[in-house]
Amino acid sequence: MDAEEKKEQFIAAYNEHQDSIFKFFYFRVYNREKALELTQDTYIKVWKYVIDGKEIIHMKAFVYKVAYHLVVDYSRKKKEQSLDALLDEGMQFADNKGLSYSDTIDWMASMQEVEKLDETYRDIIKMRYVDGLSPKEIGEIVGSSENAISVRLHRGLKKVQATIE
Question: Given its phi and psi angles, is residue 30 left (phi above 0), alpha (psi -120 to 50 degrees) or beta?
Answer without folding.
Answer: left
